[in-house]
Amino acid sequence: MSNELDNLSRRVAAGKLSRRDFLGRAAAIGVTATFANSLLASAVRAAGPVRGGILRAGMQGGAATDSLDPATWSSQVPYFFGRQWAEQLVQISAEGEVKPALAEEWSASDDAKVWTFKIRKGVQFHNGKEMTPADVVATMERHSDKNSKSGALGIMGGIDNVKAEGDTVVFSLKDANADLPFLLDDYHLMIQPNGGKDNPAEGIGTGPYKIAVNEAGLRLGGEKFANYWRDDRGFADQIEIIVINDATARTSALQGGQVDIINRVEPKVVELIKRTPGVTIQNVAGKGHYVFIAHCNTAPFDNNDLRLALKYALDREEMVQKILQGYGSVGNDTPINQAYPLFTEMEQRTYDPEKAAFHYKKSGHSGPVLLRTSDVAFPGAVDATQLYQQSAAKAGITIEVKREPGDGYWSEVWNKQPFSASYWGGRPTQDQMYSTAYYSKADWNDTRFFREDFDKMLFQARAELDVEKRKKIYADMGTIVRDEGGAIVPMFNDFIDATSSKVGGWSPDGNQEMMGGYALSKCWLVA
């Protein structure tokens, strides 16, 4: 029986037998669907990439307001689609290492203030133009411009100037920064012709797929770019993203074969999905975290006692247990966890209704506190908000919950309304996380955390090449954010995706969901 199944599974992996026929023959000889699928998955991994076909993903995180302009990407669908048609100078591997992409190699001055990147030759944009160092410089200039409203503006603030020298691009920094290569993996910094200055939403990049369909909030598609410069990705002839913001509909689409991959599987249904034939849960821990964000410069959240009251009024353990179902860990009101190499353990904040009541009374606030939430904020966000409402009530704090529609949440609620549910996928380094979301001048400073002393510490940490001293600075910064910031962080989440047995090439990547955003270009269809 074993030899027969092995032969059949290899035929499926080679594209000579359909998955359905394989499962039918396996059932006929008394093999369970679970074991047959496991054997098939092993055969697919061993067989290697298969080229051709249309690989489809059903995703939460798309809206009619989405744009192809990389500067504006703030949710999963535009970010994920962007990974398929555009590229940065470098890419962070699943192991957390900086790997060459559009830059072949790089080096730094002894003081880490001048960085030189050698730009890869022979790379074509989808419009046929060859990428040059001038395109790289123009890209960096555009994302440094406040008018671009780029999500990368915070990290670009440390760059004094960028210039092309022959086949290289030289970055001169205001202060030393040993993390610069990591920062250049930021998904907003996609290299575009003339930096996208002519038409940033045109969708012209160097990635394995060129844009064929752009129906914002509905459907996005790409077709294989014939002149793509590398051969380790882009296996399907076509890719497609179908926006399915409803979790139940997304799961049904995977089970019914309308899509091959889905993101944002809700933890409460994971065990049920695991029992579904032909479907595999793909989960990995990382730096992603779910948050309730309060604007520190907007009443009543400009009062730190009120912010502390809201932090102590949150039962993190209950939320992790009931919302994450074990697929994550407790948060501590900072965006940094043990997944970061320079992480320092801090005293864990716990649910304390008495302390919450004390700080609430001290704040002088009375009446309800309005918290906005949505199904798209994070998996289980609406349920999490209701749990928060209940735990806060025990401290005498009334949280009024307003459920917002998913379409438009990222453009009309997040980073605009003073108290809302949200999520962060994390960043490769502490510098990048703090620079993107807590630096005073960052466009994505979504808690309106403006602290001159914090900014100085951020610059000091960048310039500090002694690892232990740098770690201590980051620890002090984390304490400030935890005790005085506007981020209420109940939990760090696993990234939970799911694939059909037709998908080969999946590998865990804790940098982001969907294999760090590369699932459609690194996976393939086995039959």
From TrEMBL:
GO cellular component, one term: outer membrane-bounded periplasmic space
Solute-binding protein family domain boundaries: 97-445
Lineage: Bacteria, Pseudomonadati, Pseudomonadota, Alphaproteobacteria, Hyphomicrobiales
GO molecular function: peptide transmembrane transporter activity
PROSITE patterns named in the record: TAT
Gene Ontology process terms (BP): peptide transport
Recorded family membership: Belongs to the bacterial solute-binding protein 5 family.
The organism of origin for this protein: Allomesorhizobium camelthorni
Location within or outside the cell: Periplasm
SUPFAM superfamilies: Periplasmic binding protein-like II
Gene3D superfamilies xrefs: Dipeptide-binding Protein, Domain 3, Periplasmic binding protein-like II
Full protein name: ABC transporter substrate-binding protein
Pfam families, alphabetized: SBP_bac_5
